[in-house]
User: What shape does this take?
Amino acid sequence: MRRSVVLALVLALALVACQKTTDDSSKTPAKDPSADKKPGSAAMPGSGTASPVPQGRPKQEPINPPMDVKAPPADAVKTTSGLAYKILKPNPGGVPAKRNDTVVINYTGWKTNGETFYSTKRLGQPTQLNLSATAAGFTEALQLLKKGESAIMWMPPTIGYKTPPPAGTEPETLVYEIEVVDIVSAPDIPRDVAAPPAAAKATKSGTKYITLKPGAGEKARNFDTVTFHYTAWEGDGRQFDSTEVRKRPAVVPPYRQPAVMEEILVTMAAGERVRFWTDASKMLQGKQVPGMPTGTLCYELEVESIAKAPAAPPPVPKEVAAPPADAQKTEKGVSYKVLRPGKGGDKPKATDHVRVHYTGWTTDGRMFDSSIVRNEPAEFNLGQLIPGWTDGMQVMTAGEQARFWIPEELAYKGAPGRPAGMLVFDVELVEIKPPPKEEAPPTPGAIPAPPDVAAPPADAKKTEKGVSYKVLSLGGGGPKPTPSNRVKVHYTGWQTDGKMFDSSVSRGTPAEFSLGGVIAGWTDGLQVMSIGDKVRFWIPEELAYKGSPGRPQGMLVFDVELLEIK
Assistant: This one.
């Protein structure tokens, strides 16, 4: 994951503010193998389906329930949803959880025939659940308990499953003994979460917002690096993302955000807090992302600090919408115009490494990346970029500046999280370098392919974007990375025929990279991990290197160990 490769993966819009919440509060407990008779029917808090199975865990003895669990007793409290519960240990002075809080619980689960299917007692530590992300029954049930209380609950399948159980398994009522160890409060739901008040101001594009706390000093420019916290709710008050809960702010230039977020951030100074309302489609920038919220969303942003960029980007070209009549065109269809002649001499080949300064815009004039604002040229292998770059830059000589209009089919057409449509780049070719000496490839067979390399097994779980995964071993729990984090990992990658194509383990050196700057399947998959976890991922072709020259094609399989989150 050297810097020379990163640009091929990084030229994209970051959607930090609209990523699905994957903080430590959504950790799902590991399923006990004693449930293997019918594991898919066991609704686990936070998932509603079978949880990952750590490999090699010995079968545990059953745990006796505190009473007959075949049916709720006569003195159990029943709610309109069908939930039944009985308090076992009251705490009258305690405080109950609210809808979006994170609860720390010990629990044991049984089927109504008394069979134990899971217990945190076997791990010796409680687990955490974010009530905004659990199945409806657990969101309801855990708001009925106070810190320090315990209860036994009968959870009908109509509210006990967040997602349907696997094919071939019947939904069933499950029984849980739950003790609330701790409650971590979420930010309060705004009273006006569903719609802006009449007094709200409007940005130029019409986004409504109110200022909750004024700031001081200069406002952010769209290319400055802004450190900010945010919390986001759906119109009904369900919190779906929060850096304030994760206790890790976003650190990103506004231009890397969706346009509506960028517009708000550049109105803010350090210390300022605002609330704004927008439609989910604007945050997703027209993309369809399964599982993401819909309708009106409410955000609160608070800027901690603003770091001025070393340099300003060039102005948006007047001809950004389409190539002018005097533009030339390559054989593959990239239009270009020379802005400043070069020194003459050799032109780069697809196998060369090049150093460049560049800025990229979509045809509506929105900048999505620039080495200029970082004041540092980028270096990369010309053959490892989008085809339009590989093709277009071969017309340049060192010192030359050119503008390229790259048609969608030679850019990121259909790639998740990438800028769409024709792209426009101003590029200065700083230097051409011959191909570096190739690193010795990993010794074939040094790390044998896993037996399930050809396809994900039946017990693999799947992210909402489509990455299948299986937990090989669990670490100590805790926070999970977000796209704005850097991570340090050990990994090995195979194609589905068992051929290993890369391995930090073989090299003996962990890899470190920005999680938002790699293939979409890595960005998505690693967000289910905590430090110390080892996970196997099956990444479908459309979330890997589909169509990228020189990259392994088809579904890819990775074993990943998360060593550090930065």
